[in-house]
Design brief:
Elements lengths: L8 H14 L5 E8 L6 E9 L7 E9 L6 E2 L5 E6 L6 E6 L5 E8 L2 E9 L1 E7 L6 E6 L37 E6 L6 E2 L6 E8 L3 E7 L11 E6 L5 E5 L4 E7 L5 E7 L10 E6 L5 E3 L6 E7 L4 E8 L2 E8 L4 E8 L3 E2 L7 E3 L3 E8 L2 E9 L2 E7 L5 H6 L3 E8 L5 E8 L7 E7 L18 H6 L3 E6 L8 H5 L8 H15 L3 E11 L1 H12 L5 E5 L5 H7 L3 H7 L10 H4 L13 E6 L7 H13 L4 E6 L11 H16 L11
């Protein structure tokens, strides 16, 4: 496999496919944070587009669209971070990249015009208006703070221009590593409110004088796993602990009255991917009540009013939006669908009016679109489909929910994509999600890396949700704790067995891929089963001992494995792919990003070494400027092309039949 893959037929095919899906420069193909006020005629969102070539990567910009639909209007040329509407809907807070390399800008927009702005040092990660609309709080990451795995898993500060031989120096300390709350009164300069040793992961106003925040006493990414809730005085910045969870917390939202706090508690594996119990803290009594949201793992929370909490989440294969009434202690499900999902990383929607919601919806064969939901019915406001997307998607098969029994009898769910017109067993790609506490959904095929283009070439694709996945309650998610690589791996193998038994796939032509936890599984499964004929681990873990000592999140493996990383043997040895040979020769393409701090590239090297010592062909591909899971461009396109080349070389084209070499 050559270093420069751009002249290959596979690269040209993948590049052409994604060019059709994503559209010409300037076309908005995706977005997030759709918001609006029931009394306003305009909605706002952050849209994604390519301003140059695909190789240059996408840009995020602020857009406006009429609530009744119509063309999109770009409002700013600055790289967008966050947006937040004022409580009365009259003003929009817009956080964007500033003029300097370490500076961000906060702007206030009214009637499509900037009426106030302030610059600050750091990266703005969250915005929230005070209930009276007079102040903004900002959660600002220091210029050298690590990003979460879902955002690349690397340190923001890149090496400055200097003499080539000068070393990189790491001290594990520094003012630029912390996350702080800043306050801006829309006049003059914004000011930092909190200071080390308080690190703020999330924050929200609780009334006009206090702020509820998710905090830790250390800045390291792994300290998020031990974070707790604190109440911060909006004048002095002093903080006191108000709730210490058993597991993890996310989606912290203070109530407008200052007496209640809504948040999600859950057993989690990744910051930013919290799915679990809607929890309500009474600040007067300190009591926490778990809201009954029947069968729904909640993933986003917003206050619709002082007594109603709007939520979104997942229940099995369904994406759900609804409300919880504090007065009646009842959850009402407004919308649920298997045919569509919403949210960038997890289901997310924004309340509008007394009972409606806004979100950006999508499905495997439907490109993202702006949607308004009322009483369970959706109105499409604007499609983000590129002109050539429909033709490109038409050949990529159809998705459907799929269930099968695990070896212990537990029903496992997932999503299955069957190629159009398949009448005989096909090759199979198993794509394992990250996490492990996450889930595959009915997401747009443009997010599938090589999956969709393989389906267009006659492959079946299985997206399994083994135990540990979200959407099936706390017990199901927690089942992976202390057993990662155990029953969850058998769940995945059981899905392959079920497809073989039904005559849908060729037992001799099964490949496995995935990123992060999915990368670990892609390296691990060939050592546990002879079902697999090829493997493509991306950002994997090969050695849990060295992972613990080199990752930005050593707390992760301490949660997922029961033995100690400071002792020999146990699960740190038994569940490390690099310490086990493959059951049979499994050609392995292993890829990683050089600046990944979640699963450092040395893990991919250990997987590569183990594959070679198993007698398997193995290629190691390290992208020098890429972070976790290779989500940036052009790495995303290049990695998809290499997967296509690797699988068709070692498993063969879909029509090659059994025994192809």
């Amino acid at each position: 496999m050559q270093r420069d893959f751009r002249s290959s037929a596979e690269f040209e095919a993948v590049h052409g496919f994604y060019s059709d899906l994503l559209g010409a420069p300037g076309h908005v193909f995706g977005g997030r944070s759709l918001c609006g006020h029931h009394g306003a005629g305009q909605l706002h969102f952050i849209g994604q587009s390519f301003e140059g070539t695909i190789e240059d990567g996408p840009a995020s910009r602020l857009y406006q669209v009429a609530r009744g639909g119509g063309p999109l209007k770009r409002l700013s040329e600055r790289e967008a971070r966050q947006i937040r509407l004022s409580p009365d809907g009259a003003r929009l807070a817009f956080a964007c990249q500033g003029d300097g390399p370490a500076a961000d800008l906060i702007e206030i927009w009214s009637d499509s015009v900037v009426v106030a702005s302030a610059a600050l040092q750091g990266r703005i990660e969250q915005l929230d208006w005070s209930p009276d609309g007079k102040k903004l709080l900002l959660v600002v990451a220091g210029t050298a703070a690590d990003l979460a795995g879902i955002h690349g898993g690397y340190a923001q500060k890149q090496q400055a221009e200097a003499v080539a031989w000068l070393p990189e120096v790491r001290l594990g300390e520094g003012e630029d590593l912390w996350r702080r709350i800043w306050i801006w009164d829309i006049k003059g300069a914004a000011r930092p409110l909190t200071a080390p040793p308080l690190n703020v992961w999330e924050a929200s106003w609780s009334g006009n004088g206090s702020i509820v925040a998710l905090v830790s006493d250390d800045h390291s990414e792994g300290s998020w796993y031990r974070a707790h809730l604190a109440l911060v005085d909006a004048g002095s910045g002093s903080a006191r602990t108000i709730h210490t969870p058993k597991d993890q917390i996310g989606c912290v939202r203070g109530g407008p009255g200052g007496d209640k706090v809504a948040f999600v508690q859950a057993f989690c594996s990744d910051r930013g991917l919290v799915a679990g119990l809607l929890s309500i803290l009474d600040l007067k009594t300190g009591a926490v009540v778990i809201a009954d949201t029947p069968g729904i793992d909640v993933t986003s929370v917003e206050w619709r009013s002082a007594t109603v909490i709007h939520f979104a989440g997942a229940g099995g294969p369904e994406t759900v939006s609804g409300d919880f009434s504090l007065d009646r202690a009842v959850a009402t499900q407004h919308w649920a669908s298997r045919e569509l999902t919403h949210g960038e990383w997890v289901p997310a929607s924004h309340p509008i009016g007394d009972r409606g919601s806004l979100f950006i919806a999508e499905s495997w064969s439907r490109a993202p679109f702006l949607a308004e939901e009322t009483d369970g019915s959706i109105v499409e406001l604007a499609s983000l489909a590129a002109p050539g997307a429909a033709k490109a998607m038409a050949a990529c098969g159809m998705v459907e929910p799929f269930e099968w029994p695990a070896p212990d009898g537990l029903t496992i769910q997932g999503w299955l994509v069957r190629p159009s017109g398949a009448t005989a067993p096909t090759p199979l790609l198993v794509d394992v999600h990250g996490g492990p506490v996450s889930a595959h959904r009915n997401r747009w095929l443009g997010r599938s890396r090589a999956g969709a283009i393989l389906a267009s070439r006659g492959w079946t694709v299985l997206f399994p949700n083994p135990r540990g996945s979200t959407g099936r309650g706390d017990d199901f998610a927690r089942a992976v704790k202390g057993d990662m690589g155990g029953a969850d791996s058998q769940d995945i193998i059981g899905g392959v067995d079920a497809l073989v038994a039904r005559g849908l796939v060729d037992a001799a032509r099964v490949a496995v891929t995935g990123t992060s936890y999915g990368g670990f599984m892609s390296a691990w499964l060939p050592s546990q089963s002879d079902r697999f004929a090829a493997a493509v681990p991306i950002s994997p873990v090969g050695d849990w001992y060295s992972q613990h000592r080199t990752s930005q999140i050593p707390e992760f493996d301490e949660i997922m494995l029961t033995t100690s990383p400071w002792q020999p043997g146990g699960e740190y040895f038994a569940r490390s792919p690099a310490f086990h040979k493959q059951k049979k020769i499994v050609p392995s393409l292993i890829m990683a990003g050089a600046i990944d701090k979640s699963t450092p590239p040395g893990q991919a090297e250990e997987c590569h070494f183990a594959a070679l010592r198993s007698g398997a062909p193995s290629a190691l591909v390290i992208y020098p400027k890429a972070g976790h899971s290779l989500r940036g461009y052009p790495e995303y396109i290049d990695s998809a092309a290499r997967i296509l080349w690797w699988l068709e070389r070692h498993i063969g084209p879909a029509g090659a039949g059994p025994g192809h070499q």
